[in-house]
Amino acid sequence: MHCPRVASLLLPIAPLLLAACVSAPPGPVAAPPATDRPPAVEGSTASPPQAPQGEAARVPTTPLPPVPAVPPRPAYPSEREGVATLLRLIPPSAQDRQGWAEDIFRAFAALQLPPTREHFCAAISVIEQESSFVADPPVPGLGRIVRSELYKKAAGYLVPTVVVDLALLKRSRNGLTYGQRIDALRTEREMNALFNEMVAELPEFAKALGNKNPIRTGGPMQVSVAFAEEHLSTHTFPYPRHGAVRDEVFTRRGGVYFGIAILLDYPANYPSMLYRFADFNAGRYAARDAAFQAAVARLSGRQLALDGDLLRYEDGKPLKAESNTEAALRSIAPRLGLSAADIRRDLLLEKQYAFAQSPTWSRVMTLADRAAGRAVPREQMPQIRLESPKITRKLTTEWFAHRVDGRWQRCMAR
């Protein structure tokens, strides 16, 4: 093999291989806009569901869960008052506590979230867990991780390691080779900047990737970039924008704003903040939907993964292919008095509050209560193992939720 020639041929795809190796722990599933609320009934033109026949006609319908009550809001505290409260709650070890307190309160004010001690501590606890109050947290051994994943990807194309190394000898804008810059990487923000430069320098690389940046999460709360972009389609960013939405995710103010939005800016009937922490890791309503899966599994006699995803997804979009949960529901459709189309219609609401008002949810939970002789749980910890080259031990959504909840308990005691 003539290595210099092979290396020159590999140069255009080397960044592609690099991008493919970038790792990020599974972030929150891209959620629907945070303004989704249970639809109003008055004036609705939707046809009422048909009365079920046969056995299903004898299945009583569980009353719809009430919309979480929103008590009359007192006058919103001033920034000075809110920041003073936050300074009493933020861990003493955090650097620039004043700056963090200001960014947290401004996010609450922009989203008009109730500025309660419980909510403040929820945001503080997630920040502490995800970044230890470091705006752009370093990833230990990021350069090594990137190279290792690059070599694995190259091996899939039968490209030897030595050829990859030769390809990475190409000089970048700052005079260093791409290989040197990979080895010096410390944070995801740096990796994001390196990607942007490579897009400009190697347009064929961007085209090969469909112009998609491989960095999916970032910032002090490890927020999904897809969620941030979708959120701004219905909300106004409370700060002057500098660059793309994804660039704001990597800042302290932007990361805090989007993180608090996905954590708190949606209605839920959870009895404990623990399940919001689970949702933050696994996707909105994952804890509710995992409980629904458990009920479906008991009624159908089928083993289901209790991961909170009722449908199959690709790039955040539901696929037409039937999921195991949907198949299990279809197997008990006669007992539910629902058609396959009815079930599919309702499952498409799984990332919204409205799913808990659907006929599918209501009839499944009613039958599950009857079978168990008691009310079965309406929330359950999603069983998801977190996988990423950055994770070197067995971690799960349950571990994450309990870890954050422990921090929340300590914050509440401060």
UniProtKB/TrEMBL annotation:
- Pro residues: which segments have biased composition? 62-75
Keyword Signal recorded: yes
Annotated region described as Disordered, given as residue ranges: 28-75
Position of the signal peptide: 1-19
Question: Pfam families of this UniProt entry?
Answer: DUF1615 (PF07759)
Q: Keywords for this entry?
A: Signal
Protein name, per record: DUF1615 domain-containing protein
